[in-house]
Amino acid sequence: MVDHPPETVNQVVEFANSAEPGPGWELPLLLFAGFRSLIDRLHSELAAQGHPEVRPAHGFAMQAIGRAGITASELGKRLGVSKQAAGKTVDRLERLGYARRLADDADSRRRLVTLTPRGIDALTRSAAIFEQLRAEWATTLGDRRLGELTAGLRTMAPADGFRMDVAGWFGN
Predict the structure, then answer these.
(1) Does 7 fall in a domain?
(2) Who's near 89: CB < 8 A, 6+ residues apart?
(3) Which of 46, 90, 125, 169 could bridge 51 with an S-S bond, Cβ 3.0-4.6 Å?
(4) Position 117 in a domain
């Protein structure tokens, strides 16, 4: 274990309004805080628009399912979770009325997970809410700064996509 002086412990609050670059550990925390602020605002607005039961994990799963549908196994791969975990997520989405399992016309052994009209409505509303949130960020940061931030994040994101198993980062 490394012994750190008290001033080097992650004290994000102390740097909150600083124009200085800040210590290295601050960057991932700020990125996560920005992510959380967007996701929390999204879900608050989704609840107000008739989708109070949607959780972030559901949104990631519905994005991964898409309009064409996929198998639970493919969903697990896209989310970076086991087939069993994906199956539980699908079970929950089915109970909430956001997804359904259908026989695959091309292969009778497969069951496709597809979004219901309610699931598509939640994603459509999410897209509109994200546009509103992005506009708010543009108002606060300015279009140029937000464009530079977005371009920089695209540069740093893996070229082959990214895993959406956010909950897995915290030991779920």
Answers:
(1) no
(2) 57, 58, 61, 75, 79, 81
(3) 46
(4) yes
Q: Which letter does DSSP use for residue 165 in this model?
A: -
Range of the domain at 54: 30-158
Q: What is the CA radius of gyration of the chain?
A: 19
C-alpha to C-alpha distance for 100 and 21, rounded to whole angstroms: 48
| pLDDT one-digit tens code per residue, 77-98 | 988 888 999 999 999 999 999 9
CA–CA dist 99, 117 (Å, integer): 9
Cα–Cα distance, 65 to 111 (Å, whole number): 13
- The CATH number of residue 78's host domain is 1.10.10.10
60 within a domain of the structure (yes/no): yes
Residues pairing with 101 in the sheet: 113
Per the CB < 8 A criterion, the answer to whether 82 and 41 are in contact is no
Residue 110: predicted pLDDT? 86
Q: 68-94 burial string, b = 16+ CB within 10 Å, else e?
A: ebbbbebbbebbbbeeebbbebbebbe
> How many domains does the chain contain in total?
1
Helix axes 143-156, 117-141, angle to 10 degrees: 120
Tokens linked to 50: 């008739």
What pTM, to 2 d.p., does this model score? 0.80
What dihedral angle (degrees, nearest 10) is formed by the CA atoms of 165, 154, 134, 148?
150
Q: Is residue 5 part of a domain?
A: no
